[in-house]
Amino acid sequence: MDQLCIVTTGGTIDKIYFDDKSDYQIGEPQIGGILRELGVAFRFNVIPILRKDSLHISDDDRELIRATIAAQPARHVLVTHGTDTMVATAKVLASLTDKTIVLTGALSPARFRGSDAEFNVGCAVGAVQALPPGVYITMNGRIWDPTRVRKNVEANRFEAI
After folding, report:
1. Is the C-alpha dihedral spanning 7, 105, 153, 141 positive or negative?
2. I want to staple 29 with a disulfide (CB 3.0 to 4.6 A). Which of 8, 130, 131, 147 is the partner?
3. Which of 33, 4, 31, 21 lies closest to 105, judged by CA?
4. pLDDT digit string (tens) for 58-97?
5. Are the C-beta atoms of residues 42 and 124 closer than 8 Å to each other?
6. Total domain count for the chain?
7. What is the CATH number of the domain that holds 29?
8. To 10 degrees, the CA torsion angle through 143, 60, 76, 158?
């Protein structure tokens, strides 16, 4: 892997909560800081294109994500995305057959102690380097085919369908 291209779209991984109202906003992308703090041994660039909860990502937004990735020369792409509609975005990206694209996110914000963000990012970095071209989802320590996974909202995890 010459360089990892990272596209950020918002989601829980980048959320900032305000205790007084349990309200939130999507903050700066956290992945660059996570990778720098971990001292990774590869080059990466972060392209922040959206700051949305994934429930608010539209078809036009998905096309923007697809077009942004298509325009990048990198063959290895990691996308941070909210978990609720990650599968829908992955299915749109399936048309990009010459790249290895891995979507990941977090079930709790990266700023929270005990967040799954660092673990999911680490799994995604390994997956994007090891997998053949295609689109994948990495969550909960697993690599998923987007056509065979769903988010179980009640259990707050991804599972096979």
Report:
1. positive
2. 8
3. 31
4. 999 999 999 999 999 999 999 999 999 999 999 999 999 9
5. no
6. 1
7. 3.40.50.1170
8. -10
